[in-house]
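Researcher: I'm preparing a figure for a lab meeting and need a structural model of a single chain. I don't have an experimental structure, so a prediction will have to do for now. The sequence is pasted below. Please return the structure as tokens so I can convert it later.
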Amino acid sequence: MIDGKKIRAPLHRWKSTMNQPTRFVLDEPRLPRVWYNLAADLPQPVPAMLHPGTRQPIQASDLAPLFPPAIIGQELSVEREIPIPDAVRDVYRLWRPSPLIRAHRLEQALDTPARIYYKNEGVSPSGSHKPNSAVPQAWYNKQAGIKRLTTETGAGQWGASLAFAGQLFGLDVTVFQVRISYDQKPYRRALMETYGARCLASPSTETGFGRSVLSRAPDHLGSLGIAISEAVEAAVATPDTRYALGSVLNHVLLHQTIVGQEALMQMEMAGDDPDVIVACTGGGSNFAGLVFPFLGLQLRGGRARRYVAAEPMACPSLTRGRYAYDFGDTAGITPLAKMHTLGSGFTPPGLHAGGLRYHGMAPLVSHLRELGLIEAMAYHQTECFGAGRLFARCEGIIPAPEANHAIACTIQEALRCKREGRAETILFNLSGHGHFDMSAYQDFNAQQLTDKTYDETELATALAGLPSVS
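Model: Understood. Here is the structure written out token by token.
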């Protein structure tokens, strides 16, 4: 059990590390000029996405109602490097390169020989890693003459990021936010609206699918699968509208690799090299962003490392899901992807890490799991909040509930190093801050936060309903 009451941050007996650097910050000219595409270095290709009607491999034309041509090209590309447009790099400079931090105080609190570093993606305007993909998606749509974007969001990090990016490029943005997060996180909704987006609780009365869900279950908590169905339905209904998503598909993971590319240079600045790399996983974007550039080096003959995906016990797609073809949405209108899935009809419990409440895992990340190149661990939310509170008391940053999963895993790895007497280097992605999640921390501090469990019968039913693919 990780708890700030049991492992106290020993600031009153702090040992100075003034002779050891803490922050590793790249100058703006070193901002990466390309995104890295892991598909170029895979030992086996990812199974193709399938058309939802014909069940044949998806073609570029099949994706045209959803995405602009440049995004479709990136989704299907196997080129190793994709140039980042200058207009996108110019916006990135508002917060990028993001800092790499040595967590000296957390190391001392854990009394571990491990060296712990974290990439702080919470410094972006919307407070998470999500603008790394929102900005290019908005720009490519603007270049294609699109006027409106629809999307889904869980905790609101993606919705806020797309709202921000849409405002920069003059696009109207409509966000379908999962009902439980819409209710739990009103300030993320306020952030989206401040940026100029329209935010609706999903399931909503705005779409045919939303109305059908509400007719069966008026108090439905919602899910990312349902919100995706609504956003896609709304997008295809209007010619000047397209859909944007914040995780799962290849082009989103591609955009996030700017994180790992910066981290490679910053670890070199630190004179260190990670043995273990950790990130939370819901759809897979921040995990891919940090891990893929390091894993790419390994696949091209570099040193081996451990890569650990940390997910919620209440929505454990990598640790409990089946590797199979499934829809990315609940209505079954998106392409079929081979991924670790709990079933597109599965509705996870209402845990506070709303960004991790997705039934499936990115096909690329799932493929790596099947190849044995990455590991996965699942954690209960009370353990994660204990880890986040300890981190806050040591490092001063209050993490988002999603990022707490990576912190819990990092602490577990650091304590393993202590038991084994191994001075390993651990790098994790602090994917966002938790300033809009304080009600959850209040509940945790008052010992009112409970662990959520999924219904085994519902999971079995959802898995039994997986589409048949020959």
